[in-house]
Amino acid sequence: MEIIYFFMLKNNFFLIGLYGQSNGLVAEWLCRGLQILVCRFDSDPSLQIKGDFYRSFFFLLFLQKNPKILNLWCIDMIESITLTNFRNHKNCRIETGGHKNIIITGPNGAGKTAILEAVSMLAGDKGMRGAPMGEIACFGANGGFSVFAQITDETEVCVYFNSGDTNRHAKIDGDNAALADLSRHLRIVWVSPREDRIFVDAASDRRAFFDRLATSFDSSHSGRVARHAKLLQERAGALKNNADSNWLNALDEQIASIAIAIAAARIQYAGEINYFMQDGAVSVDGMVESMILGGNNTSAERAYLSYLKDNRMLMNDKMVIDGVNKSDFGVFNTALNLPANLTSTGQQKTTLLNLILAHAKLVHTKTGACPIILLDEAAAHLDSAAREHLFSELGASQAQVWATGLDANIFQNVPDATFVSCTDGEISNIL
Question: Above 60 in pLDDT, residue 58?
Answer without folding.
Answer: no
